[in-house]
Write a structure and sequence with these properties.
Helix 8 runs antiparallel to helix 9. The C terminus is likely disordered. Among the domains are: 46 residues, no CATH class; 117 residues, Tetratricopeptide repeat domain (Serine Threonine Protein Phosphatase 5, Tetratricopeptide repeat, Alpha Horseshoe), CATH 1.25.40; 65 residues, 434 Repressor (Amino-terminal Domain). A hairpin with a 3-residue loop joins strand 1 and strand 2. It has a two-stranded antiparallel sheet. The longest helix is centred in the middle third of the chain and has 59 residues. It is flat. The protein is built from 15 helices and 2 strands. By secondary structure, the chain is mainly α.
């Protein structure tokens, strides 16, 4: 029994302990009979009306929250996953267990004698195949592959037999080897597509079919293309929908992070302003500015940039949470000449450049009016 069933049983027992009269409910007659059969003592049914019983049940039972329900309640705005489409699985097969067919390594040179032997075995296999003797044809093709492990024609033909024997995984290996030897083998592409089709790899199958048809089409191939196309289209559309949903989630999550950061920054700005009004301590963001200028932009010719603007910029405030950036900023505040220390630190430089723009400086100025 899994943990979910045990948890539900535990909740039910707690319910009965809180209100023993529930055992007399008609729906629980089977359970009551079972308890009596094993000698359990059942308390008599209390004399109470239905309304009082319902009120008693409601008051006495506080079910333990289900983990799944708690999770779903805590995330009410989470968009449900896009369900997979309903495919036509009529031609998809479930492979059984079978002995692996031999696929020798491509080692050594294939002599003329070996190539001739392979061709002879291929002819015998084709004859057996035409007579419907699939196992015999498979054995003969396998002997031919041993003689010439890189022969695209014999590998593709053996793949066709493997597909007919409902062994598409093995057929894929033969087709991959054949296409490695001859990428333009229409037969190998056709049967690799068929193997993928049988395995439910609809998009891969359609790609192989299309490429095979461009090289050399035939009626069987065209039938497979028409049969597989609806599933391939559904698979592609579902994949695109899932990718689109994932991107939309990432955008929403980023927007939510920025929204929260902005709220926190605005709160920090209000607290900083209040602390300044009451003499509280805070960094002197005006230190180091040219005479006549302050952190609020006064004396800077009406240029934009003020403390409120700084705290309202999520990117700056997120960057300022980095101790390295904050220490560098305070260091430069003490002495603008210290900017030279951070000439090679791109992270610090980019923040200081943005701060310079916020406080009314030019693109080449840092906070305090010094050059970058």
């Amino acid at each position: 029994m899994d943990s979910t069933h045990i948890e539900l049983l535990e909740q039910f027992v707690r319910l009965l302990k809180g209100n023993p009269s529930l055992i007399h409910d008609d729906k629980l007659q089977f359970f009551k009979d079972y308890l009596i059969s094993i000698g359990a003592k059942i308390s008599p049914k209390p004399e109470t009306n239905g309304a009082d019983a319902s009120a008693s049940e409601s008051a006495s039972y506080s079910p333990k929250p289900n983990k799944t329900e708690t999770t779903e309640t805590s995330k009410p705005d989470v968009e449900p996953e896009i369900p997979p489409p309903e495919y036509d699985m009529g031609y998809v097969i479930e492979e059984g267990e079978y002995e692996e067919v031999e696929l020798p390594a491509e080692e050594g040179e294939v002599t003329e004698e070996m190539a001739d032997k392979s061709s002879e075995l291929r002819s015998q296999a084709m004859s057996a195949l035409s007579d419907g003797k699939l196992e015999e044809a498979l054995n003969l093709f396998t002997e031919g592959v041993k003689c010439n492990p890189s022969s695209a024609p014999i590998l593709a033909k053996r793949a066709s037999v493997l597909c007919k024997l409902k062994r598409p995984s093995a057929a894929l290996k033969d087709c991959d080897r054949a296409l490695k030897s001859n990428p333009d083998s229409a037969v190998a592409l056709m049967w690799r597509g068929r193997a993928n089709m049988l395995l439910g790899n609809f998009e891969d199958a359609q790609k192989d079919f299309s490429q095979s048809a461009r090289i050399d089409s035939n009626e069987v191939l065209e039938d497979w293309i028409r049969e597989n196309k609806p599933n391939a289209t559904k698979s592609r559309d579902h994949k695109l929908a899932v990718e689109r949903q994932s991107k939309e989630r990432m955008i929403k999550e980023k927007q939510e992070r920025l929204r929260k950061a902005k709220e926190e920054n605005e709160k920090a700005a209000r607290e900083a302003a209040a602390a300044g009004a009451t003499g509280g301590g805070m960094p002197d963001f005006g230190a180091g500015f040219p005479p006549g200028a302050d952190a609020g932009g006064a004396g800077m010719g009406g240029m934009p940039g003020n403390l409120q603007d700084l705290f309202s910029d999520p990117e700056i405030m997120i960057a300022m949470q980095d101790p390295e950036v904050m220490n560098a900023f305070m260091d430069v505040q003490k002495d603008p000449n210290n900017i030279a220390k951070y000439a090679g630190n791109q992270k610090v430089q980019s923040v200081l450049e943005k701060l310079a723009m916020k406080f009314g400086g030019g693109a080449g100025s840092a906070p305090g009016g010094f050059g970058m």
